[in-house]
Amino acid sequence: MIEWLGMPVGASAHAVEVDRLMALVHWLMLVMFVGWSTYFTYVLVRFRRGRNPRASYHGVRSRWSTWAEAGVLVSEVVLLVFFAIPFWSRQVDALPAEQGSTVVRVVAEQFAWNVHYPGPDGVFGRTSSDLVSADNPLGLDRRDPAGRDDLTLVNELNLPVGRPAIIWLSTKDVIHSFALPQMRVKQDAIPGVLQPVWFTPSETGQWEIVCAQLCGLAHFRMRGIYRIQTPDEFQAWLAEEAKYLPAY
Amino acid sequence: MAGPSPWATHLSHAGPCSLAALRTAWLRYPNLLRRYLFSTDHKVIGLQYAFTSLFFLLVGFSLAVLIRWQQAYAGQPLPLLTLLVGEVNAPGGIMLPEFYNQLGAMHGTIMVFLGVVPLAVGAFGNYLVPLQIGAPDMAFPRLNLASYWFYAAGGVVMLASFFVPGGAAMSGWTSYPPLADFAPQGQTWWLAGMLLLVLSSLLGAVNFITTIVQLRAPGMTWFRLPFFVWTQLITSFLLLLAFPALQAAAILQGMDRLAGTSFFLPSGLMVGGQAVDVAGGGSALLWQHLFWFLAHPEVYVLVLPAMGIVAEIIANNSRKPVFGYRLMVYSIFVLGFLSFTVWAHHMYLTGMGTTISAIFQATTMIISIPSVIVLSALVLSLHGGSIRFNTPMLFALAFLPMFGIGGLTGLPLGLAATDIPLHDTNYVVGHFHYLVAPGTIFALFAGIYHWFPKITGRMMNETLGRLHFAGSLVTMNLIFFPMLMQGMAGVNRRLWDGGAIYQHAEPVLYLNVPMAHAAFGLALVQVFFIVNLFMSLKGGRRVTANPWEATTLEWAAPTPPRAHGNFDELPRVYRGPYEYSVPGMDVDFLPQHVPDAKAGA
Amino acid sequence: MTIRLLTRLATMAVCTAAVACGGGAPQDQAATPAAPTAAADTRPVAELGNSTVSGVITFEGAVPAPRPVRMSSDPGCLPAGEGATSEALMVAEGGGLQNVFVYVKDGLGDARFPVSTTPVILDQDGCRYTPHVLGAQVGQPVEIRNSDRTLHNVHTTPATNRGFNFGQPAGVPAVTRTFDAPEVMVPFKCDVHPWMSAYLGIVPHPFFAVSAADGRFEIPRLPAGTYTLEAWHEELGVQTMQITVDGTSPAEAAFTFKPAS
Questions:
Q1: Which chains share 3+ C-beta pairs under 8 angstroms with B?
Q2: What average pLDDT score do residues B421-431 get?
Q3: Is C75 on the interface with B (CB under 8 A)?
Q4: DSSP state, residue B489
Q5: How confident is the model at residue A167 (pLDDT cuts 50, 70, 90)?
Q6: Is cis: bond before C131, omega within 30 of 0?
Q7: Confidence bin at C80 (pLDDT 50/70/90)
Q8: Shortest CB distance from C195 goes to which of A134, A217, A244?
Q9: Is ipTM over 0.90?
């Protein structure tokens, strides 16, 4: 069913669950629509004026439609109670431990994704709006000892495969929505809110970060690139990026 | 620099002509304006609503054609476009992204608030409710008049906003702050227009409720009301209770923009690298709650009158009572109540926890049940009927599967987990367009074809009607089904280039082209309707008061119904609304107003 | 019958509505005040002189290493943008400092000078603004071009002039804007490419220049008088000096900037 729906490849641990529910829901929709349309077509043909010149005052008397409706209700309850709600509580409420995860800050702005890695010390440096400039869109204080080794990038996010990734999402100006279609991740970035979103990439590859919420005139091209790398590639990339750090 | 937009040139020429025309009209026909422009007769007001809202539907649809064209051929110069929308909006034939965003925001606003709802409630409700309940007019005729003129003023403000510096509102029809707070002044016009439209709707709602409660003809008990009247009653309650939330929100946003408040602006915002000089401390999410508290019930405002029209037409053309009349009435009661409890399913991805999301997922699933019941009842009504396939019936029948697709595609959006990949994609756009375009708008077309003979005493042309129907059905599906496919592939909505920049959109990007062509096709097919509408006014076949052999009270009135009073003498009601094919009778319909003695076998 | 009258009236109503919106809606865009001040100005046009003030702007201290600008965030800017460096602090071998805006800040009194109708050109090329620093007279047209095959948005954040923010998709004709108040400097920014910035100095006379790659600048045709010259640099701040010219012979002026501490 999933191939048939034409979704992008699912490359995170929880994508399997999302896709399974997506397939189930669409099966339910298909069954309902086909069953219902068949009956509809039958009625139109069978009870056309030419075939049935005199209508029946009473029409249908059987209760099978009630059973069909009950069936719909039960299916919906099953989808909700056994799939949708448990999924949400696992994936949204339960944040994994930062140790053992890759922790990244992503700060959205019109029209770019600023990506902030804490560096080898694992601590994000201080940021301040006073320090924001074209060269330093995050306003990172490089004098802060914790900030010296921090990596900052624009529209580029690299993550190692197989390790939970925690993204602390925020925005500088308007509402954006941080979407990684292949990770089955989409999270609004709301001004004034620091929102975590997490997932475990399960396949390597290079895809695109999408802005999914209208954010202004260049919304359509607020695109970033994200790469899911092997742990070795990721470490090598971090080392390479560190060369760009300003010297202090 | 660019000269004034061609729109403006055109408009400025209209100046002296219309003032002079108005003056001449006033002198030549002293009572004309009072009788036809400022009339308090519900039928005249209904027709004013009808013509105005049809005009706005055309405007809103034209914007959509531009949107579809742009998505298919983004960035390719089309000199005609500059002629159409001006150098300011499309220099060198290339549509600017800021104008594209105006098209999106205004298409939504115009279609919902100036097109569909005024046609469904203002026009159909106004014209039919007093007739169907056997009343001489609405309870408050002057309020009715005021309601129309507030609506017209709101429409003028919305249209005018295209011509103000910076153009019309461009932050989506949802106007989410902070984006809308920072938008050019067109957004302020949008807010002012909304306030007028809200006022109009509130006045109308009070009027409908009072009319239906107070002015029913003798014998018209609650459960003898035509289903259409029930849908108008519930709709009025929804408007009355939901719109104040948007009214408050619009005032707050207006203050953010004009008075320096920051209801929707948190502290510490930086736009374009510069700190925003506001007090801060507000909440961007507050707007979304207020907006969707209106906008979700608004969905049912769009849907309920359509269900009412379809029920009337199906009963009439299948020549039998609707299935489960009382069940349908109870269902729309439940629908009305529940529609106030589901708004946050538009906000699953704003950072909602499990508890809240579970509550809104549950209410969303529950609300699907009464919808399924009403839809099933309408289909089951056909069972055992003797179905006439005339134009109104074709539109009403097509409403059922099209509305069905719209409803079913709501399921994966209503479950938070499957909403993750689909949220804000074209899947959402396809979903609600199936509900509103081949859904509600088909029902409205059905209603126009069905009641036209009552209003004018003439039939609309059947051949043109069928062409209009078949063409609209095919082209609408060609536009909206590919949206579902694109959305599933992850293509987002509101993209100037239709998604061309994204790799994951590549497999379904080609669909933008047939969608654009189908949109043009849909526009062409509407010519059948427009020609039919105006030609039939003069040339349609003349008919008697009850050409469809219907049972409800509007067909008991003369054709057209009497100005100020409707009926020759006020009717008495003896039975329910859909007494078709009553066993033991020669004729297959038994009107509500015919006494039992006369209805003899 | 009723319907006919109604349609006629509806047409009239649309006409009336059209007057309402046509009349109340100025057509031109907000940020294009088409030099209204110039039209209303009744002051006599002052004579230009023949003194040319020129000089070199130097950066004192070690020549800083060029700072890399990474354009990888938009693959559309590559490979042209590969290896690009920041234009904020550009020092030549001999210490000449580029991109300094020099202008007569004071001393011209209330004199009015002819406004050039030749547009100042600000191009967007290779995901950079060219030039990075430029000047224009109040009321002089500024032509903003996009030579790239990608979308830029032109976002200004002036303090006194009216700002604007518009998109320029690839292929659209250049946009011309004017500014109606003196302002040093009006920042330009592209929000799609955060490294893109430009600074436009708006002055009420033609006596301004931007230092070249070797730090040289030249302000021609000054009339006789004593003036305050100001030199502005985006990172190193401003410096002023007094200068007196006789209106016929050239004069020298030099500024030295020190690294920001």
A1: A, C
A2: 97
A3: no
A4: T
A5: very high
A6: yes
A7: confident
A8: A134
A9: yes
Q: Mean pLDDT over all residues of chain B?
A: 92
Shortest CA distance from A14: residue in chain B: B417
| Residue B14 scores a pLDDT above 60 | no
CB pairs under 8 A between A and C: 49
- Give residue-wise pLDDT tens across range A142-166: 999 999 999 999 999 999 999 999 9
Domains and their CATH numbers in chain A: 2-93 (1.10.287), 102-242 (2.60.40.420)
Distance in Å, alpha carbon of B559 to nearest chain C alpha carbon: 12
The pLDDT of residue C2 is: 46
Chain B contact present for C193, CB below 8 A: no
| CA distances in angstroms from B160 to B52, B189, B251, listed in the order given | 15, 8, 20
Confidence bin at C40 (pLDDT 50/70/90): low
| CA–CA separation, C70 and C73 (whole Å) | 7
CATH number for the domain formed by residue range(s) C36-257: 2.60.40.420
By the CB < 8 Å criterion, does A111 face chain C? Answer: yes
The Cα-based distances of B252 to B106, B275, B346 in angstroms read 21, 22, 21
B11 inside 8 A of chain C by CB:
yes
pLDDT digits (tens, 9 = 90+) for B492-550: 999 999 999 999 999 999 999 999 999 999 999 999 999 999 999 999 999 999 999 99
The CATH fold assigned to B45-260+282-556 is: Cytochrome C Oxidase; Chain A (1.20.210)
Contact assignment for A69 to B373 by CB distance below 8 Å: yes
Report whether A132 contacts A139 (CB < 8 A): yes
Residue B343 has pLDDT above 80, yes or no: yes
Which tokens sit at B110?
């115009």
What are the tens digits of pLDDT across the range B164-215?
A: 999 999 999 999 999 999 999 999 999 999 999 999 999 999 999 999 999 9
B98: which residues sit within 8 A by CB, 6+ positions away?
A217, B167, B170, C166, C167
Cβ proximity of B459 and B559 under 8 Å: no
Residues 60 through 119 of chain B touching chain C, CB cutoff 8 Å: 75, 77, 88, 91-92, 94, 96-98
* Per-residue DSSP letter, A153: E
pLDDT for B6 equals: 40
* Domain spans in chain C, listed from the N-terminal domain onward: 36-257
| Ordered alpha helix ranges (H), B268-409 | 284-318, 325-338, 354-382, 391-408
Q: Is B356 on the interface with A (CB under 8 A)?
A: no
Q: Name the token pair of C221.
A: 């045709």
**Cα angle vertex B596, ends B590, B597, to 5°?**
125
- Percent of chain A exceeding pLDDT 90 equals 82
Write out pLDDT tens, residues B402-423.
999 999 999 999 999 999 999 9
Q: Which helix (H) or strand (E) holds A37?
A: helix A15-46
d(CA A80, CA B411): 11
Q: What is the pTM of this model?
A: 0.91
Whether C192 sits inside 8 A of A216 (CB atoms) is no
Q: What is the mean pLDDT of residues C25-45?
A: 51
- Across the range C229-240, mean pLDDT stands at 94
Put simply, whether C6 touches B (Cβ < 8 Å) is yes
Nearest-angstrom CA–CA distance, B220 and B223: 8
CB distance B400 to B307 below 8 Å = no
Helices (H), B161-272: 179-182, 186-214, 227-258
> Is C145 at the interface with chain B, CB within 8 A?
no
Domain positions in chain B:
45-260+282-556
Please state, in angstroms and rounded to a whole number, the distance separating the CA atoms of residues A186 and A177.
7
Q: How far is B544 from chain C (nearest CA, A)?
A: 17
Q: Which of B13, B17, B18 to mutate to test the interface with C (most CBs of C within 10 A)?
A: B18
Give the number of other CB atoms < 10 A from CB of residue B397.
26
